[in-house]
Design goal:
The chain is mostly helical and 340 residues long. It has helices at 2-33, 41-49, 55-90, 102-116, 124-145, 150-174, 177-187, 195-214, 216-222, 226-231, 236-258, 264-276, 280-304, 313-339.
């Protein structure tokens, strides 16, 4: 009976993987073709196969569409895996990269640059990454001081987010023009991303993603509880910090070029677990695929929904993520009431 159930779960996971890959390919191809300039499927196929391609079509695909699709894929995959890891490590279904202060640290750094050196706003991605890293380091330091329990990490993240959020408001009050310079980043969007700006964060993401997937099995042990995991030979506190470092690296690299995109790390892991269960060896790679497809699809919709005007993808995702977050709160309260 147990073997048959395991076989069914494995079969369902394979089907979901296959469907996710197909959807990801289809969405990526559609995102390369959709836009104000006319580029056909034949042009995209010619680029892929190295066939003869007109100069305008090559320029549009290589310098506009492909960098944007690549940035959506990287940001979506990184933020979704980061969220899945954080939820597993903290045993909190409503956790996301925001919970460890990534967005607030990155946002404050960008606003400071916009206020003090508006001419250097081209360094906003670097400032965002450094701000995210500083925020994560502060939380790790507080966590080490309090033995890195789940509760202390959450509380440290809330405290750092609150402090940095207050700093952002202070900068906006004292230097209102800073918001004008940094508005695109604070909302979250992929317009203007180039392959050059994408190169450095892509390297971080492509290093951190395999590390997260490689050690996904340890998250399953942590789900058994700290004492049980420790009895099975795991150094729980060190493993928790290890996974939080990976999550911070993924989220920090993603927001450095995509801005403060919200709800990816919250929505996607829940959708994945609904279909395949809670085995993190399956949840993490599938979250990467679904997250990449989700952000790419949202960005494509944002580009065409109000054409010729473009809606930042962060706004579209907020419209989707807000109701989902409310649903999680209601569902979690109903579950708590049922238990009591």
């Amino acid at each position: 009976m147990l073997t048959a159930c395991h076989a069914n779960t494995h079969r369902r996971s394979l089907i979901v993987f296959a469907v996710s890959v197909c959807v990801l390919v289809a969405v990526s191809a559609a995102a390369c073709l959709v836009g104000s300039s006319s580029v056909g499927p034949g042009d995209l196929w010619a680029l892929v196969t190295g066939s003869e391609l007109s100069a305008p079509a090559r320029n549009i695909l290589l310098n506009v569409r492909l960098p944007r699709v690549a940035s959506a894929l990287l940001a979506g995959g990184a933020l979704a895996v980061s969220g899945a890891v954080i939820q597993a490590v903290l045993d909190n279904p409503m956790a996301s990269p925001n919970i460890i202060g990534i967005n607030s640290g990155a946002g404050l750094a960008v606003l400071v640059v916009g206020a003090l050196a508006p001419a250097l706003m081209f360094l906003a991605p670097l400032a965002a990454f450094l701000g995210a890293v500083v925020s994560a380091l502060l939380i790790f330091a507080l966590s080490f001081g309090a033995q890195a329990s789940r509760l202390t990490v959450v509380l440290a993240g809330i405290a750092i987010s609150t402090i940095f959020g207050a700093g952002m408001n202070a900068v906006l009050i004292m230097a209102p023009d800073a918001y004008v310079n940094a508005s695109g980043f604070l909302v979250g969007g992929l317009a203007g991303v180039t392959l050059r700006t994408l190169l450095a964060p892509a390297c971080y993401i492509l290093v951190a993603l395999p590390l997260a997937l490689l050690f996904a099995g340890r998250l399953n042990l942590m789900a058994l509880g700290d004492e049980r995991a420790h009895s099975l030979g795991m150094r729980v506190k060190a493993a928790r910090i290890h996974f939080l470092v990976i999550s911070a690296l993924l989220a920090g690299a993603a927001v450095s070029f995509a801005g403060l995109l919200g709800f990816v790390g919250l929505i996607v892991p829940h959708l994945v677990r609904f279909f395949v269960g809670h085995d993190n060896r399956v949840v993490l790679p599938l979250s990467m695929l679904v997250g990449a497809a989700f952000v790419t699809a949202c960005d494509m919709v944002s580009r065409v929904l109000f054409a010729p005007y473009e809606l930042p993808v962060g706004i579209t995702m907020a419209f989707l993520g807000g109701p989902f977050f409310i649903y999680l709160i209601v569902k979690r309260r109903g579950y708590s009431d049922a238990r009591s």
